[in-house]
Design a protein that fits this description.
The complex is a heterodimer.
Chain A (H helix, E strand, L loop, with lengths): L3 E4 L2 E4 L5 E7 L5 E7 L5 E9 L2 E4 L6 E7 L2 E6 L8 E8 L9 E2 L3 E5 L1
Parallel strand pairs in A: 2-11
Antiparallel strand pairs in A: 1-3, 3-8, 4-5, 4-9, 5-6, 7-8, 9-10, 9-11
Chain B lengths: L3 E2 L4 E5 L4 E7 L4 E9 L6 E7 L4 E4 L2 E6 L4 E6 L8 E12 L2 E6 L3 E6 L1
The chains are: A mainly beta, B mainly beta.
C-alpha cells in the first residue's frame, strides 16, 4: 500500500462546481502539504499544515481551502472551480526537523475543469 | 520572479556516461537544497540533499555539488542508466525558525538516458 494516498487520481468537472481532493498518509508524519504542478512549471505550494490545529497559506492559496481532519488526513477544496485550476495536484508529508527533511509525495490527482 | 531556476528543460545522455543537471538560485537565505526525481504518473521522490554549509554530498552514483558564491548547484549521475530517465526537480529550503521551512521548486529537467 502507498504511504501517501490521493483520491481521486483523475477528475473532470465543470466550471463553478465544488471539488474536494483527499489525501491520507500512513507515515505518521505531522506535516502535510498541497502542491500544484502546471506544464512547464515546477511544483507550487498551495497550503501546508504542521499539525492538526495548524493551517498555513502557501504561494498560491487564492481559490483554495483546506481541512486537516486528523493527523493522517488533509483535504484540498476548490469552492467554485475555474478552468485555470486545471493542473496536477500533489499531496506530500514530512517529518519535523530541519529543512533537509525529505517530503514524501502521493502519485497526484489530475484535475480538469471544463 | 523565479528563485530556483533550471534552465535546461531537457537533457539526453548515452548510457554509461555522466549526466549533469544544473540549478541556479537567487535567494541567499536558502539553507538546504534537495533533488527530487519524478517518473510519469508518479509523485516526486527524494533523491539527495545538501546543506548550504557543504560543497559536496555523495550517495552512490549521485553527487550534488554546491557553489555558494555562484548560487549554483549541480547533480551528477555516474554512470547514467536507462532507469534514470525521469524529470529531475531542484528544490531549495528556507527556514523561518521553530522548525518551519518551505520548499521552492525549479521547473524541472527531463533526463533521457539512451541505451
Amino acid at each position: 500500500d502507498a504511504d501517501v494516498t490521493q483520491t481521486p487520481r483523475n477528475r473532470i468537472t465543470k466550471t463553478g462546481k465544488r471539488i474536494m481532493l483527499e489525501c491520507s498518509q500512513t507515515k505518521g508524519h505531522d506535516r502535510m502539504y498541497w502542491y500544484r504542478q502546471d506544464p512547464g512549471l515546477g511544483l507550487r505550494l498551495i497550503y501546508y499544515s504542521f499539525d492538526v490545529k495548524d493551517i498555513n497559506k502557501g504561494e498560491i492559496s487564492d481559490g483554495y481551502s483546506v481541512s486537516r481532519q486528523a493527523q493522517a488526513k488533509f483535504s484540498l477544496s476548490l469552492e467554485s472551480a475555474i478552468p485555470n485550476q486545471t493542473a496536477l495536484y500533489f499531496c506530500a508529508t514530512s517529518d519535523g526537523g530541519e529543512g533537509n527533511q525529505p517530503q514524501h509525495f502521493g502519485d497526484g490527482t489530475r484535475l480538469s475543469i471544463l | 520572479d523565479q528563485q530556483v531556476k533550471q534552465n535546461s528543460p531537457s537533457l539526453s545522455v548515452q548510457e554509461g556516461r555522466i549526466s549533469i543537471l544544473n540549478c541556479d538560485y537567487t535567494n541567499s537565505m536558502f539553507d538546504y537544497f534537495l533533488w527530487y526525481k519524478k517518473y510519469p504518473a508518479e509523485g516526486p521522490t527524494f533523491l539527495i540533499s545538501i546543506s548550504s554549509i557543504k560543497d559536496k554530498n555523495e550517495d552512490g552514483r549521485f553527487t550534488v555539488f554546491l557553489n555558494k558564491s555562484a548560487k549554483h548547484l549541480s547533480l551528477h549521475i555516474v554512470p547514467s542508466q536507462p532507469g534514470d530517465s525521469a524529470v529531475y526537480f531542484c528544490a531549495a529550503s528556507e527556514s523561518f525558525g521553530a522548525g518551519s521551512y518551505q520548499l521552492t521548486f525549479g521547473k524541472g529537467t527531463k533526463l533521457s538516458v539512451i541505451p
